[in-house]
Amino acid sequence: MLFKQLFENESCTYTYMISCTNKKEAVLIDPVIETIDRDLQIINSLGLKLTYAIDTHIHADHVTSASALREITKCKVAGPANDNLECRDVNFIDNDSLIIGNSIKINAFHTPGHTDTHFSYTLDYNSEKMLFSGDALLIDACGRTDFQSGSSEVLFSTIKKIFYAMPENTKVYPGHDYNNKSFSTIYHQKRDNELINFDISLKNYIKKMNNLKLAKPKKIDIAVPRNNACGLSN
Ligand SMILES: [Fe+2]
Predict the structure, then answer these.
(1) Mean pLDDT throughout 128-134?
(2) How far is the CA of 143 from the centre of ligand 1 (A)?
(3) Domain coordinates in residue numbering, the chain
(4) 114: CA distance to ligand 1 center in Å?
(5) Cβ burial 2-39 (10 Å sphere, 16+ → b, else e)
(6) What is the pLDDT at residue 234?
């Protein structure tokens, strides 16, 4: 397996490339339209074939490059079934999986709260679990819950019951980071996440989430309609 974490500066989005070096197949999780040339250059320079462009959710802050990647590479576009997007080729339901190349298995599971249809992905590699948590669990933070059918109560349950039940050495690779951090572990998030550590009560968590007072994402009015078309402009 070859793994790369890639960063898009404007929206501070992480895109992940996971590839099977035996079969020379690669997938991208949460690719961004602004960095499509870079991502394709990396994949081509490694002699890989892109087989899937996978989104964790309908992003509000950036536009996915999924459709554009399909046009160029003939890859398949994948994401949560409950998004109900006709533009997708693969629609995940809870506990689905996808095989990359010979044997790399990506597990897809429903992790609502940031949005109601949000999915996260895991894979097991060298006795370690890698968690691609999208915008549900961020490093020392979590995704906002104040639009796109988000719910702090639901996200609390997702993080506590799904993520914090994973092995503590699970590496957490988030959909964004705004503080130059690249990954964490479940162990560290349970201890150090100030918004939602292992001990915080639902009441206190909701209070903290209600006090975030975040500005509306600059691109939301463009990004959401385009992402509902897998990144194509209508
Ligand atoms: Fe998001």
Answers:
(1) 97
(2) 7
(3) 2-225
(4) 7
(5) eeeebbbeebebbbbbbbbeebebbbbbbbbbebbeeb
(6) 61
